[in-house]
Amino acid sequence: MLPILCLITLKYNDAYKIYYSIDCQIWDGREKTDFFKDAVQYLNKKKITTVTLTGDNVSDKIKIEKAQSDIKKLVSSKDSIRGIKFHFGQKSEYWAFINVLDIMKIEGATAYFIYKNDIWVTNPKPIKTSKYSGRIIRCETGALAQQTQQNEPKITWQKTKIFWQEIIEICKKYYPSVITYILMVFFTLRRIINEKKGIR
Asked: Cα–Cα distances in Å, from 186 out to 115, 144, 165, 183?
């Protein structure tokens, strides 16, 4: 009975669910900067498809799913002419905004602009190639190579540290279930050993 209770507790408390965050730079409100002017000029050259989110959860979910498929095609095609704009109406909900940002991360969209009630998605400006493109050789020698080698153990240690921090957090959150499980295993093993020795 105890193992079942432990498993039920872990299942309904999302013990192993890991939450993530993404970096997101929101527009700072300044419209007279060169960056803003360049961005507006760049977006005005695009053929934009607008997805209007109204706050109706059912229709907004359908629109977002369709838009995800379109963004996937846009990113994979490297189309520099088209773009997609999400417009959030007065009644649109926060989950829709977060879902749109999640889609950018999932589909690998790197050029998206958040401005007032809109998010524009497009492909970045194509890099101008020259006659030397494709012939760049990356060479790590001297101090740079030494620095790379020195950073490898540090990165491995950081990954190990993060892994153990996650384990500690899970144990802190679910220690009653963990302790119950350990005690159950201990008493079961003790009973098996005692039965082998003939002790009742």
From this structure: 59, 53, 26, 5
Q: What's the CA gap between 89 and 2, in Å, rounded?
A: 51
- Which residues contact residue 90 at a Cβ distance below 8 angstroms, ignoring those fewer than 6 apart? 55
pLDDT at residue 50 greater than cutoff 80: yes
Sign of CA dihedral 76, 78, 82, 83: positive
Q: pLDDT tens digits for 140-161? A: 444 444 544 555 565 676 777 7
